[in-house]
Amino acid sequence: MALQTQGKPTREFRDVTAWDRLKVNKNWLGLWFMLPAAAFLILFLAYPLGLGIWLSFTDARLGRGGEFIGLENYDFLRDDPIFWLSVFNTLLYTSVASIIKFAIGLYLALLLNENLPFKAIIRAIVLIPFIVPTVLSAIAFWWLFDPQFSIISWSLKKMGLITANIDFLGDVWNARWSVIFANIWRGVPFVAITLLAGLQTVSPSLYEAATIDGATSWQRFRFITYPLLTPIIAVVMTFSVLFTFTDFQLIWVMTRGGPVNSTHLMATFSYQRAIMSGYLGEGAAISTAMIPFLLAAILVSWFGLQRRKWQQGGDND
Amino acid sequence: MNQFTRRGLVQGGTALGAAAALSGPALLDWAKAWAQSAPWKPEKGAKLSMLRWKYFVQSEDDAFVKLIDAFSKATGVPVEISRESYEDVQPKASVAANTGTGPDLFWGLYSLPHLFPQKCVDVTDVADYLGKKYGGWVDSAVKYGKSGNKWIGVPICYSGALMNYRLEASKKAGFSKFPDKTDAFLEYTKAMKAQGTPGGFALGHASGDANTWVHWCLWTHGGQTVDASDKVILNSPETAKALEYAKALYGNMIAGVASWNDASNNKAFLAREIHWTNNGISIYVAAQNSAKDVAEDMDHAYFPIGPAGKPTELHLMYPTLIMTYTKFPQASKALVAFMLEADNFNPWIQSAKGYLTHCLNAYDKNPVWTADPKTTPFRDVAKRSLTAGGLGSVGEKAATAIADFVVVDMFANYCTGREDVKGAIAVAERQLKRIYR
Q1: Using CB atoms and an 8 Å cut-off, which of residues 175-194 of chain A contact chain B?
Q2: Nearest residue to B71 via CA among B343, B359, B317, B363
Q3: Architecture of domain B162-314+404-435
Q4: A17, B184, B236, B358: which has the fewest Cβ within 10 Å?
Q5: pLDDT per residue over A223-253, tens digit each?
């Protein structure tokens, strides 16, 4: 007060407010920088996922909203033999295809890591199945497996090995193995090339040291390559399992889930019920039922990646 | 035997068509006169948009565009046409009905207007006008078009699926005429297989081919999915008999039908691998272009008749409807009536080359049905067709049951030996009960 009476304006001192603190808070600024990304994720990932789960609790039909009906869709699916068949098919498809894709992919990666003539060209060729649009390769396989015009049946017949065409897609188990085969063909390059990238990060000096110590090639693989490759394997296999589990195009083009639903995966079955027949709620329930399986696959890889020791080639204790 | 070539057929068709059809300025004059006298006067400044199914043959679409042009010139009403694959018209129409905005007219598949009857403009006046003028509507068209006492859609045409068979092989098997009874047909398939010229029906998820033959088989043995009040009555001795019959047929079919989709039997027939199947006219049209010997040596026939004692075929119907949200109901009605007037409809249905069949009796006389006797059976598909859902209602539930392959899977389950009769029926019954609850 005394100062003011002298008529000399000076700066007023006041307490630091919460707003002042906030203005210089790095985290507050960070929040704003993060918002666009968050909005993106919420709008295009979280919202559709939430909507899908919500729809699974309603009796929505295509083109019109639905009423909340609780767990009725799930109740119906619980006693639906076709649903359980699709779960069985999906698990069979995913497990068999993923294991074989991993085995062949690893083998190819090791092979391509050697010094081969025309290395670059061979690596490019390996990628081809992955580059071709899925629908195109599916149509090609559909022709290869055609009951009347299969080139495989034709060749075997010409060689005198069989007398009648093989019913690739019309017989329950034949159809399952046929679509699994097509999926493996398509998925191997992804596994092979990614593992190859991993292999190239392994320092050659480790192999030199091991060779000097007299390690066999199996021992070099088992104690150097494999442990150092583990984190990549975890990532690749997670992706491979996710892609295979949610596969749609191959099945839809080749069999539409037939014969008699024996190749319906959960994804194709969900589409069949939701879009073809118009039971949006029930279709959403089928897709939602895929989430626990997918979460399990992600968790496995998450914990795999968290293990530092494991990544550095130590034991898992 | 007459030599049929595509060119010859087209020339014959045009010559005959020219007598009935108007074109160029003559069409415009006629259209103007029609617009003067028609009972529906388009609103001032009217503009229409229509979503239709995508054509099977280009010439059909060309004729359609010409017809729409004539309408626009005569009435001053511009019409915007958009096309969707025929399976996709329904979801779009449903959304439009729901949100109250979209094209004024939809032209889709059989039960479309029944999915939202309260959203369709009452077109009883149009249907009555056309029915009176052109010899009346066929029965199935009335059932598809009417909800209660009023018409909610105007049936435009059907696309038929009938028996396709090779002449010489059938003759060799002892059938100079295609069997018209189910017992004889079973004998026929047996004899055909025995001499190494088998045929086949699709048992995979083939929306058209599989659904048409399994419904024929179920109905002709007296089986029904639901009764007139939409109560599920699938579990019956008749259904079991139909399944047994289908299994006997299946034993005489070529291997692999369980994986067939809609294109499979076309491919196999054109490659001379199969000698009888069910299909629209597309095999014949394709054969005329690429396999003339097959075209000459094949013909079409009605489906055989079984214990039911009358035709029980299932053919696709294409109705058009006007949405209640349209600002121009009079213009819309005028357009629908205009499409079905003889001067427009005759050349249009002719341009479809037998893919499409009329449902107004007077058009039986169209030359497209007699220019080539092999297309004649398709003239009658509208008359012979039952409606989706059989005895039951023609609405959404019947459409869902067909789209979900309930009956197809029941037959496939039993024929391929995955389920016994009881099991196959039980699975289908459970699905139907949910659809019809």
Answers
A1: 175
A2: B343
A3: 3-Layer(aba) Sandwich (3.40)
A4: A17
A5: 888 888 888 888 888 889 999 999 999 999 8
